[in-house]
């Protein structure tokens, strides 16, 4: 691509507080620079050292990286380990009584699960899986709500070498069936249903429907009785309840040691840009980065109470709920409900009650909670917090500053973590005790991650110009392939025009300090009269207006300019209509012109009650591109959260 123009300027810098740095794992820029230098000096030696530091190996590896069949890289290939033993057994007996998981349900009831209890539950369930004939390498689909049992099910699979594929509980029967069939899963683990915002959501019915439509590989279903009152035995295959499955099973289960490259799981991407891809992750390399980044980026210590609000159905819920924090033996919160029930103070109430110290959530949640006003969080004691994190989308500086001031009391660093299902773990993120923060930038690549911004031929672009975000060398937790589709893996991530670099699919720029700014998906770049603009920057300007809650921007073909900008805006309060809408359009066009220049002025602005989002909360701009052109949106909508919004934005309601 040509160079992108950068129109967003953000100069506020937040340096790590000395109190934070003093006790941090990596507590200075010099310490950080030394790690970067170590990785440069001896790339393999660096990763081998970390792999020994963060993972307990049953058979130590002798070879670090095998690149003989690039881009199908292998890491630590002759080593053997068990991931569940790393997350549980190695903390025993020392941490037997330490709380591993604080589970809070929708209705506010709380359970504490110690590391010993977690061990026993995982062992029993792993034995139950074995009793159903599940063996090393078999695929198991997990379709469960965000409850501790989901983590138990994942770890039980890992214990016996079965490959799990978690399907987000909000997905429909069709999405579930596609994933079951793509993985050829032998077993499905589900629940009768779950509670969200005081309402029952039935999960088992979706499984029945999926199986009715044909899932020939499935031999059995295990259903957790979680809400009660839902009949089992209605699908066409063998069914048993979780309680029946573990009945009589011992609380010991010898972990199966697997090769480092043995797949730990398959996880489908969120589908923002197209048909979801079944991303395959390894056991050894994946765990190295999961544990290392949890330690470095979240600075997790023994006395922290950590809470990541992501669902286990997403990569964030894999790496930063199940695997990373448990590998470090910390205490974490797992929450079944929604941030707005019983009211918009739920998150902050939970932070206060559980004394959460490290909190990780998505920009979409931050913007939604910001919209409710400062009074809500101000009612709670948030003084236990010491570090905040975000993931999933670029965070616009307005939301960043609100998160920093109102939630973090101005004292907590914010780690804006850039990564993907494919990277397995954080790739670009500020290490909080070491790196100065600038709102809106995910700052610097982690030591050992050789990221760059390049043109379409792989040449680094100049400072401040936009280009393709790439990672030039392999890293342990990188995806190994797309399940069943090596060809798509190569074509998508290692295209011929780049010299063996991993292509992330995002556009980015680097500033004078080397800081990386994610500008959006490569597809989201808009070319207005020869100026290439990132959607993110126009959106940030819109959201900076006091009356705007959220905005999405797309390009529309234009005879003269090439493309023009169309903005979809959600305001705080009611959606403006008629004259009020016209007035608001004028205000916002002028505002954007003032904030970043006339070139970025949207040609059209439409208002909606919300925006089309994936179930993981990301804006689906590819659907908005159709709407902007006056065409019905096309392509895969199976992961869309709120289909009705498309009609409203098309102007049909
Ligand atoms: P699909 O690949 O199917 O379109 P997806 O890319 O939304 O789905 P994920 O792997 O969950 O699925 O998301 C990774 C993407 O999220 C990144 O490529 C990037 O676009 C965006 N992202 C994640 N974290 C950040 C961040 N901190 N800043 C900016 N963008 C981010
Ligand atoms: Mg993606």
What is the helical fraction, as a range of percent? 25-40%
Main sheet specs: 7 strands, mixed
Number of contiguous helices: 20
- Which structural class should the secondary elements be placed in? alpha/beta
Mean pLDDT: 93
What's the Cα radius of gyration?
A: 24 Å
Bound molecules: adenosine-5'-triphosphate, magnesium ion
The low-pLDDT segments are 1-7
- Note the beta-strand portion: 15-25%
Strand order of the largest sheet: 5-4-17-16-18-19-20
N- and C-termini, Cα separation: 38 Å
Total strand count, please? Answer: 30
Shape: globular
Domain Acetyl-coenzyme A synthetase N-terminal: 33-87
Cofactor: Mg(2+)
Binding site for CoA: 196-199, 316, 529
Family: Belongs to the ATP-dependent AMP-binding enzyme family.
Walkthrough of the structure:
It contains 20 helices and 30 strands. The protein is of the alpha/beta class and 653 residues long. The strands form 9 sheets. The chain has a 7-stranded mixed beta sheet with strand order 5-4-17-16-18-19-20, with helices on both faces. Helix 2 (29-41) packs across helix 3 (43-54), helix 5 crosses helix 6 and helix 13 packs across helix 15. 56% of the residues are buried. Bound molecules: adenosine-5'-triphosphate (ATP) and magnesium ion. Adenosine-5'-triphosphate binds at residues 269-273, 276, 314-315, 391-394, 416-421, 442, 504-506, 518, 521, 616, 618.
Features:
653 residues, alpha/beta, 7-stranded mixed sheet, 5-stranded parallel sheet, 31% helix, globular, binds adenosine-5'-triphosphate, binds magnesium ion
């Amino acid at each position: 691509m040509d160079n992108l123009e950068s129109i967003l300027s953000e100069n506020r810098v937040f340096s790590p507080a000395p109190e934070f740095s003093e006790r941090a794992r990596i507590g200075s820029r010099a310490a950080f620079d030394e790690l970067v230098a170590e990785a440069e000096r001896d790339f393999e030696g660096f990763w081998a050292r970390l792999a020994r530091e963060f993972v307990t190996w049953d058979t130590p590896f002798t070879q670090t990286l095998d690149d003989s069949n690039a881009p199908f890289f292998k890491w630590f290939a002759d080593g053997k380990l068990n991931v569940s033993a790393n997350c549980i057994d190695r903390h025993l007996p020392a941490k037997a009584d330490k709380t591993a998981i604080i589970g809070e349900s929708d209705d506010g009831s709380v359970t504490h699960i110690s590391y010993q209890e977690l061990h026993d539950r995982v062992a029993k369930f792993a034995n139950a899986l074995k009793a159903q004939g599940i063996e090393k390498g078999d695929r198991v689909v997990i379709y469960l709500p965000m409850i501790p049992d989901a983590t138990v099910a994942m770890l039980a699979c890992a214990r016996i070498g079965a490959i799990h594929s978690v399907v987000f509980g909000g997905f429909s029967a069709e999405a579930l069936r596609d994933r079951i069939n793509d993985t050829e899963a032998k077993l499905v683990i589900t629940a009768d249903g779950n509670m969200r915002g005081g309402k029952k959501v039935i999960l088992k019915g979706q499984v029945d429907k999926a199986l009715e439509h044909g899932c020939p590989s499935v031999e059995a279903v295990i259903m957790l009785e979680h809400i009660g009152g839902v009949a089992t035995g209605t699908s066409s295959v063998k069914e048993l309840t979780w309680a029946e499955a573990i009945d009589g099973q011992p609380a010991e289960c010898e972990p199966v040691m697997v090769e480092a490259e043995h797949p730990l799981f398959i996880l489908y991407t969120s589908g923002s840009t197209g048909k979801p891809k079944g991303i395959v992750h390894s056991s050894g390399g994946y765990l190295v980065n999961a544990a290392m980044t949890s330690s470095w980026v979240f600075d997790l210590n023994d006395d922290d109470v950590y809470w990541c609000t992501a669902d286990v159905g997403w990569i964030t819920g894999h790496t930063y709920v199940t695997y990373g924090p448990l590998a470090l033996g910390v205490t974490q919160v797992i929450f079944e409900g929604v941030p707005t029930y019983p009211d918009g103070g739920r998150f902050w109430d939970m932070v206060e009650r559980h004394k959460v110290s490290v909190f990780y959530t998505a920009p979409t949640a931050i913007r939604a909670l910001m919209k409710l006003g400062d009074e809500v969080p101000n009612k709670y004691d948030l003084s236990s917090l010491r570090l905040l994190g975000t993931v999933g989308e670029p965070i616009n500086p307005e939301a960043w500053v609100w998160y920093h001031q109102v939630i973090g009391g101005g004292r907590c660093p914010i780690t804006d973590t850039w990564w993907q299902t494919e990277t397995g773990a954080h790739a670009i993120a500020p290490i909080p005790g070491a790196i100065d923060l600038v709102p809106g930038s995910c700052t610097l690549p982690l030591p050992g991650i050789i990221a760059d911004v390049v043109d379409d031929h792989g040449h680094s672009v100049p400072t401040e110009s936009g280009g393709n975000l790439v990672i030039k060398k392999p890293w342990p937790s990188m995806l190994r392939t797309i399940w069943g589709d090596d060809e798509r893996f190569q074509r998508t991530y290692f295209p011929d025009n780049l010299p063996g670099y991993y292509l992330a699919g995002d556009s980015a720029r680097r500033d004078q300090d080397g800081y990386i700014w994610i500008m959006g998906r490569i597809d989201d770049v808009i070319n207005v009269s020869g100026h290439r603009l990132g959607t993110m920057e126009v959106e940030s300007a819109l959201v900076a207006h006091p009356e705007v809650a959220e905005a999405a921007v797309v390009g529309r073909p234009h005879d003269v300019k090439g493309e023009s900008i169309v903005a979809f805006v959600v305001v705080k309060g009611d959606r403006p209509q008629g004259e009020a809408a016209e007035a608001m359009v004028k205000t916002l066009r002028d505002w954007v012109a003032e904030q970043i220049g006339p070139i970025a002025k949207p040609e059209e602005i439409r208002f909606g009650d919300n925006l089309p989002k994936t179930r993981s909360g990301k804006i689906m701009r590819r659907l908005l591109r159709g709407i902007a052109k006056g065409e019905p949106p096309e392509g895969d909508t199976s992961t869309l959260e709120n289909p009705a919004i498309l009609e409203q934005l098309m102007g049909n309601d």
